[in-house]
């Protein structure tokens, strides 16, 4: 188990202690917790199993060639394009990122991928943004943030030059 898990456990324990001290009814919180767990746990299980299969199917040499350290700065636009095209929620997107990390993708490429997926995600733009907010808004938003994934990747490169903090360690 990694440190993120233990930080989450400590935060949940602290929140539980605060709730006990305030003597509030835990019923609604427990109900919501169980509802969310019932939705998320099966999705995570399926996503991680699928990611394991995808990890075996994807050619590791190609991922390393396009997203690895030897790809240099070309890895950033490649990762941004992949992040734009991944039509999935966070469970799938982060599982894909873990597969990329295991296959040899560099940390800056992973940062660019996750940032591009977070900002762009074509499925969200086409299903929600375009119909609800219109093409003018979508164009303005995209033009105002198009550089962000590349800047995040470049910043990861700079941080990687001065420290070893942030190396992706896939658990799949």
Short characterization:
This protein has eight helices and no strands.
Describe what this molecule looks like in 3D:
- By secondary structure, the chain is an all-alpha fold.
- The protein has a domain at 43-162.
- Helices cover 79% and strands 0% of the residues.
- It has 8 helices and no strands.
- The chain has helices at residues 3-22, 27-57, 60-67, 75-85, 90-103, 107-119, 122-145, 148-162.
- Helix 4 (75-85) packs parallel to helix 6, helix 5 packs antiparallel against helix 6 and helix 6 runs antiparallel to helix 8.
- 23% of the residues are buried.
Order of helices and strands: HHHHHHHH
Name the assembly state. Answer: single chain
Low-confidence sequence ranges: none
Mean pLDDT: 86
Secondary structure: helix percent: over 70%
Beta strand count: 0
**Radius of gyration of CA atoms, rounded to a whole number:** 19 Å
Q: Please give the alpha-carbon distance between the first and last residues.
A: 12 Å
Helical region count? 8
- The rough form would be described as globular
């Amino acid at each position: 188990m990694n440190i993120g898990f233990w930080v989450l456990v400590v935060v949940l324990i602290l929140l539980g202690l605060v709730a006990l001290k305030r003597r509030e009814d835990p019923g609604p919180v427990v109900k919501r917790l169980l509802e969310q767990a019932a939705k998320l746990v099966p999705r995570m299980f399926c996503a991680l199993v699928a990611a394991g299969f995808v990890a075996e199917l994807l050619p590791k040499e190609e991922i390393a060639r396009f997203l690895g350290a030897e790809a240099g700065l070309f890895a950033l636009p490649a990762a941004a394009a992949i992040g734009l095209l991944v039509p999935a929620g966070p469970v799938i997107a982060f599982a894909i990122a873990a597969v990329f990390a295991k296959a040899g993708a560099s940390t800056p490429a992973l940062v660019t991928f996750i940032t591009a997926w977070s900002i762009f995600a074509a499925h969200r733009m086409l299903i929600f943004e375009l119909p609800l907010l219109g093409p003018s808004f979508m164009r303005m938003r995209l033009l105002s943030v198009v550089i962000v994934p590349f800047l995040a990747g470049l910043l990861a490169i700079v941080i990687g030059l001065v420290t070893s903090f942030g190396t992706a360690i896939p658990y799949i």
